[in-house]
Amino acid sequence: MNLYITRHGETIWNKEGRLQGWKNSPLTEKGVMQGKMLKKAVREYGIKRIYSSPSERAALTAQFASEGLDIPVIFMDELKEMNMGDWEGRTLEEIQNEETENFENYWTDPFKFKKNSGEDFSDILNRAKKAIDRIISENKDSNVLVVTHGVTLKALMSFFAEGGFIEYWKTPVVKQTSISLVKIDDNNTGKIVMYGDTSHHI
Question: What pLDDT, in 10s, does the model give residues 142-162?
């Protein structure tokens, strides 16, 4: 099985440096174009099915990527972004100034991060595991695309990373609608063979 994973197109809040979580922000013109360019990868990699977060920014990205193609799009709540509680809609700068220690833990020591009204990293990892297990079970020997979000993408891929989540969390955040690939064998053992490829953006 080839499991391709991407992040939704650019949004207004992405440009403004605001955390989105379960809240939504509209795609920018660039974000729309990124979604449309993603269709090139869908064709090239022979994608047979798309699983997407139901959040508007991801759902629209999946829609653009599959437009005019006979490919089903399946929405899964488990693929939504990490719920950031009262951090949602606030800029990174605001959060850093007001909750310096918790902000630092979020980026450098995630299991010390204290959730407010949202989720913590154990929550998102448990949710991502449910998503991965379902997607693998439904798609033996197939090419599948997952359209999700920055934190959720890392959570999904960390199950196949040698150093686990803590080490994988340190990797750079991928660009919007870049493609990462996990090859999964018959024993459900996965290997990351591509991370953040943007060749389809050309």
Answer: 999 999 999 999 999 999 998
Alpha carbon distances (Å) from 98 to 8, 101, 103, 104: 28, 9, 9, 11
Give the C-alpha separation, 61 to 9, whole Å: 6
C-beta separation of 119 from 83 below 8 A: yes
**Which residue is catalytic, options 10, 81, 88, 119?**
81
Q: In this predicted structure, what is the pLDDT of residue 101?
A: 96
Which residues, including other chains, have CB under 8 Å from residue 108's CB and lie 6 or more apart? none
- The radius of gyration of the chain from alpha carbons, rounded to an integer in Å, stands at 16
- The number of angstroms, rounded, from the C-alpha of 70 to the middle of its chain's C-alpha atoms is 23
| Residues 46, 98: Cα–Cα separation, whole Å | 47
The model's pLDDT over 133-144, given as tens digits with 9 standing for 90+, comes to 999 999 988 999
C-alpha–C-alpha distance, residues 79 and 189, integer Å: 21
Active-site residue (options: 8, 88, 149, 200) = 8
Coil, strand, or helix at residue 188?
A: coil
Amino acid type, 75 = F
Q: Is 8 known to be catalytic?
A: yes
